[in-house]
Structure formats: C-alpha cells, structure tokens
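Hi,

I'm pasting everything inline rather than attaching a file, because the server keeps stripping attachments. The sequence lines come first, and each chain or strand is labelled.
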Amino acid sequence: MNELLLIATVAGRRCAFHATSIRSVIELGKITPIPGTADMVLGLAAMRSQTLTVIDCARVVGESLAAQDGEPLPADARAAVVDVDGYTYALAVDSIEDIAETASDVSKVLGGFGEKWAAVAHGMVETSDGPALLLDIDQLISSTTRTDRAA
Amino acid sequence: MDDLLADFVAETREMLEASEGEIIAWEADPSDKSRLDTIFRFVHTVKGNCGFFDFPRLERLSHAAEDALAEVRAGRRVPDAALVTAVLAIIDRIGEMANAIEQGQEFPKDGEDALIAALEVNAEIELDAMGADGAVDADNDAADPVTPSKSANSAPDNAPAVQRSIRLPVDLLDRVMSGVSDMVLARNDLAHRLRQAGNQPTIDGPFERLTTILTDVREAITRMRMQRIEHLFGAFPRLVRDLSSELNKQVMIDLEGGGVELDREMIEMIRDPLTHIIRNAIDHGIETPSERLKNGKREIGLLSIAARQSGNKISLVISDDGRGLDEAKIAEKAVANGIISKADCDAFSREEILQFVFEPGLSTAEQVSSISGRGVGLDVVRDNLEKVGGSIRVASTPGKGSLFYLQIPLTLSIIAGLTVEVGGQSFALTQSYIEEIIDLANGNFEFSNAGETALVTFRGERIPCLSLAKVLGVEAELAFDKQVLVVLRMANGDMFALAIDRIHSHGDMVVKPLPPAIMATKMFGGTTLLEDGSPVLLLDIPQIAFKMGLVSDARSQTFPSVDAVPEANTSTNQHVMMFTDFSGRSKAIRLELVQRIETIQSDSIEGDDGAVRAVVAGEILPIIGLPEEGDENVKRPSGKVRVLRLSDGSSELLYAVARVQDAIELTGDLVAVDDVPFTEAMTLVEGNSISIIDGHAIFAKFGSKPRPVNALTCLLPDSDWAKTMLAPLVSSAGYRVTHSAKSSADIVITLDQNGPSDVGNSGSDHSVIQLRSQPDAEIPEADRPHSIYRYDRDGLLAALRLAGKGEAA
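And the predicted assembly:
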C-alpha cells in the first residue's frame, strides 16, 4: 500500500513524515523564545491566532544546523504543523522538499541510524527519489520532555 | 429565587423526565422490579429534599407514595393497576407542585387527600370516583388553578415564567467554550490587521459590532460552566463545627477567596479531597485545647482555606496551626511499608519525606479514630486530584502547623492579567496576585540584602525581592534601581516583589495550556496571544515562588494570632507617612489621616494667604503646606504637585509636599512641642529629628467638607467651536459645562455676543464672560476690556476665576 510522505531535510539528511499527520506547512515568522526550556524548544509562534510550540528537529537528533546558538532562523524557515496530545507543535526543519509516495515498506538498516536518529525514527522508506528516514512524530515530541528530565 | 431551591426544582423536574419512561414501562408491567426501584428512588429523593426545604405537603405526598412502594418492594403487597395509577397521579402532582414552587405560587390543596387515599390497599371506590385515567384528570385539575388561562385539556405547564434550565453534556460546552475563545483570538488578530491597514469606515463599524457581540457571548459562555467556589466553602464551617465538637477540640475556620470561579465539575471533583484534608487537619493536626495551652498556643485552633486563581490553575491552600507532621514517624512508616529503604531515608530531605503521606497505606495516627487515620485517604486524595490534572503538596513545621497546597487546573479560562516586559520580552502575570506596583525610579525605597537575597521594605515589612530576569535567566535591560517592582501576594499570604523592566498593559487574556516540554520549566502556567497576535507566556507565580524557596510552611506573617492584636494596640505601634516639604525638611503625618496620595496640576491651585484651595477629582479642597507666597527662597511648584489627601472622617484637606518618602513605624519616643504651630511632637527616625504634623490642629483650622465643583456651572454657546475647543478647556479648569440655555448656569460665556441671549442678558444672578473672534490687535483699545479674544487662554481662565469668586462671595 502506498502512503503519502512529506519529504523534508533535517540536519542535512533526507527525512520523511507521514503526510496524514501533518496539518499544514508554514513559514515560521517571529518566534517568542521561552527561557528555561531545552535547546530543541525554539519558542512559541502564532499561526492564525493559535499558539504553536516550535521544535527544532535538528537539535532533537543532536545536531544544530537549523539555527546556531543565538542566531535567528532564516527568514523563510519552514515548519510542519502537527497535533500531538491536544497540543499543536511546529516542527522546524531545514527545508521541505515535496510530497512523495512510499515505494517500500519501512525497513531497518543494518547497523542502525545512529542512536539519536533511531530514537525518533520508524525506519527507512524508499521513495521514487531515493531513500528517506521516516520520523516518528510522537517520539520526536516526547523526546523534548525526556531530555528535560535528564538535564 | 434561592439557588438551592432552584436546584431542587431543576433536579426534581429532571428526575421526573428521566423516570417518565420508567413509569410507563412500570405501568405496563407492574411486577418489574428494576422499574419499581427507579420510581421508589425518585419519590424517596423528593421526600428527603422536601424535609430539607420544609414543604410539608409535598413531603406528605411523596412519603405516602414511598410507603406504598416500600410495601411492594418488600413483597407485602402485589402491585395492581389501582396502585400504579395512584402512584402515577402522585408523581404528576409532584411535578406540578415543583412548577408552582418555582413560580413562587401557592398550590391549591384540593385533591391531595384523595390522591393519598387512592394508595390504600382497598381504595377501588375512590379510584373509580376519579375515573379510569385518574392520572390525567388529576393533571388537569391541578394545572388549571396554576395557569387559569390555559384550556382544560392542555398539558401541564412546563414553561414557567422564571428561568428555565436545561442540562447539556459537558463535552458540548467545552467545544463551545474553546470555540468562543478561539474566536476572541481570531478577532484580536483581525483587529491588529485592520489597524495595520489603516482606517476603513466600512469595515470598522461592523467590526466594532462584532467585538461587542463577542464580548457578550464570551461573558455568557464563561458563566455557563463557572461557579463560585463559595458553593463548596459553604459546607465547611458546619463540617468543622461538627468534627471539632465530636473530637472535643476548638477550631476556627477562615475561608478566603470565595469569589474565585471554578468549573462546576471541578468543584465536585475537589469536594471530597478537601473534606478529607479538613478532617485530617482537625483530627491529627490540631491539638486538644489543653495541649495547645501547654504549648503556648491559643486554645482555639485555626484552620484556614484560601483559594486563588493563577493562570489556568486554581491554587488552594489549606493550613492549620496544629502540631505539624512528624517527619521521623513518616519516614519510619515509609520504611515499614517498603516504600523506601532505610538507607535511602537519610538521602531524602524533610520536604521529600513529608510527601510520603500521599503514599498508600501510610497513616501516622497512633489511634485509629472514626474520623480518619485508617491509612486510606491522602493517597486517594492525591489520586483523585491527579486524575483531573491537579497536584498536591504538603509542607509543615513541627509544632507550628502544616499546609496543604493544591493546584487544580481550569481547562480553559479567561483571566485578568498584566503584561510586563523584561529583557525585551513580554510576559503575562495574573492580576489577582498583584498587591501593588512600585516604580523604583520614582520612589525612595529601602533595600537591604540578607545574604544573596535582596529585601525591600514595603509597608513596614521586609519582603524578598526577586529579579525576574534572573529567575528566567535573561539579561535585564534596566539597572535595578530603574526597574519596576510588582508586589505579589501568594495564596497563603506571603508576599514577595518581582523586579521587571516595565509594565505594558492589562486586560483579559485567554489562557491556553502549554505542552509538557514547556511546563517542565516550572515557570509558566500557560500562554496567551497579545492583541498584535504574538504569543506571550503566563508566569506561574506559585511555581516560581516555590522554586525560589519563597513559600513559607505555615501561614504566619499575614495571620498574626488574634492574641497579638490587642498587644499591638497598646504598644507604640504607630505608623506615619514621611514626606519632604517645600523647604526640604522631613516631616511626618499619621498614616490614618492619609487617605490617598494624589498628583494635581499646579494651575488647579488658586487663592492666596491662608485660603488656598485646589481642585482634586472634581472637588474643591483647602490645600496647605505650600510655600508662603513671596517667600523668595522657595519657588512655588509649577507643573505637577504631589499632595496628600487627608481626611478626618468627615472633612478633608490637601497637604502639598515636595516628595513623598515612605510609610514607617514610629519606634522612638514622642517629644511634645507646644510652641511650633501645627506640630504635634518631635521624634527620632534613624537619628534625624522629624516633626509630626498635628492633625487635630490643621483640621480645626483648615478642614472642610469636600465641596463639589459643580456648584459652578458654565454655560457655553451652542456652537461647534465651543463644544470642541472651549468645553475641554473650561471643564479641565474644574467647571461643569452645559450647552443648554435652560439649565441654570453660574457663569455664561458668549462668543461674539451671539451667545444664548435670553440668559446672557437677563440680569445679575450669573456672571458673563464675552469672547470675541478678533485678536486684541484688531480692535480698538477701548473695547478690549469688555471681551476676551477666544484663544487667549490665560485671559479666559483669569476671567473664569474672577467670575467664580464673585459667584462664591
């Protein structure tokens, strides 16, 4: 069965989200920072009078290509809007490429994807343009609170 | 109508509707046991409620029906059609009587005995007399007298003139409420965009209308689910009284914050937990009177419950001044119950060990009493609170008392809040915490440091002062002495000050919950959108205070024991307001006399030599303390003048000061002075001698009843110029303005002599000021004194004053 995927670049890697769980893709405007939160929580943004919590996906996997410390996001930074547990999040990514169809089942790769990637990924999927890592949105969100507790 | 009564009627009607189907099913099959039970429950509940409300007739009816049904339930009587009909007739009658009660009408008595008699085992004869469908007949007989206009065969009147109520599923209400709050946010967004787009009359009108409607709807929606927590508090004094007399203790209860509104459902959810904590506090916490006296406490224990709204949470603090929790015993029990190991025990702080009281099976009571101490309870309390998303914590000082701190969420709330800025970022604060706002740049406040903690003296109390920038880990824009202090009062009465860069605005905010990643900071309680559409975080004041260790264990500072109060009165515990007068001397005046500190414009002060008066908030009051006219050393103040508004209860006067210093407590001895006028005594304050103003003497000489300025009414010409240019000027000078020639005026102003001529020339009961359109230079010199150029502000004000004086004389 072919599924629709949203293909995005996270920390320079080709990644995918289940398109059905993405509410919309927005351009991030002004972000209100939140003191005291983990690095990966960039802050709050407003979309059509709704408040979104902006999560930097690159930081979640331990890289920080999307935004260096203190440096603002590029003006055209994109984010995928998702609803998890009744809260609305914006997942900030490097760039959003396209919608693609799955060409294979989700599969594991021998040797894994690296510890941090593995924690937030379902596995690898083939698309017509090549492989992408299918990210688990729930895991991505819950990892933001996990790190908090450890810190 | 009384709330309880309305509840009773609504409940009765609802049960009636619910059991309607059951009744019909029962009629079809009188032997159906479960139907019978439902109906029995209904009449039983009605009977119980009637006893409570003192409706003897209703009670008699339901009691009779209950008796008959009880017989059936016990198997002593076989239900037959006659019985069913009789019971149905009574149930119908109950519904009608409930309607009559709601409308506040007397219900006619007829037929009641017949209805009851019909329940008797051998009542066939009466039943026959009532007809085969007795229930329906009874219906009509009863309904008619209530609403005589109705035709005889109309259904019983279910539409009373008073408020009708329906019950709705909570889910639906939730959806409507969140929809409305989203609408408010969308409106704010739209408002912002409209402002950016500039004025567009065709859009602005309807938009204004939308705003008004939305405000109304929002208010109604909010009220739909909210109930004041008073409803819950109402039952506590009785509970405390009963428990304390049962346990031979004396307990006083103090309830605060009854006005806090809470979701109706939430009130039900916290009823049991609160009751439980109160029971615990009285049973275990508060000692017996003899024990209390031995420990140097008042024999009456104090239990206080305070509610506060903070963001989308309600905090409840239940504190007692009893013996406190025994840490060692709790640790022992926790080890015995295998919650922790003995080795772990030492690693825990007292604070952490105390929290074990919420673990299952932990009771430190030596004796199990009927009230509490069975080891089931606090764990259930915690579970129940956590189920609704709340939390509970306990703090305690041995021998001093303990404090239960509950937080319960409001899924959605609209709160009054204040937006503040620190480090270039905005945050919101719940208004209900704010006690006072102090601008450090304007004031003279005393600071001190105790170790790392900064303290500020506020109303004679030293309170800790937090820098919000430090709490949040951001850089403040302003130096500390330029910042603004927001003095906050916690639910338990503790106060602290929060230093911020500046205050923005206040208004209603729709608070939305934050995702767990942000809640984990334990600093924010929610988020809301500003009018410009940018999100702001709502500071969670209790959490911040707790995080910074600013929550004391027992309610001590603001709740002095009642014994201490008479002592305080006999000691020299007098507060004075210190200020600097215009010659630079520090003086003081008793704080009780100071009603308010006001700032007035110097041109609202007029008069000379001992009879100077000033206009404050539409009233003319004598003003003293100004430097003597002609005193070359001191200049009369210009621009804004600070005045103390003094009151002796009936008359008032103003005292002009150069600078207000602070309110202090007098500690030094008072040395009476006789020879200095208006000075009561001298005293030492921090090594400087300060003279205290003799309030009695100044009121004896200057005091006057506030005289409203509107004694002087100014009639202006009925022209656009007069309305837009002249009226504001005249009214800001303290005169009342009228444009109607019919109203009586003290001063009449005319323009180019075409003013209201009928009044303007009619004689001497008012003064006339003539204005003209030509500047002085354009008219002959001889004509100038008769009229004033209409843009000659000073000339006009002088003429008004002159006219006003002539009027007063």
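Residues 170-197 of chain B form the longest helix (28 residues).

If the labels don't parse on your end, tell me and I'll reformat.
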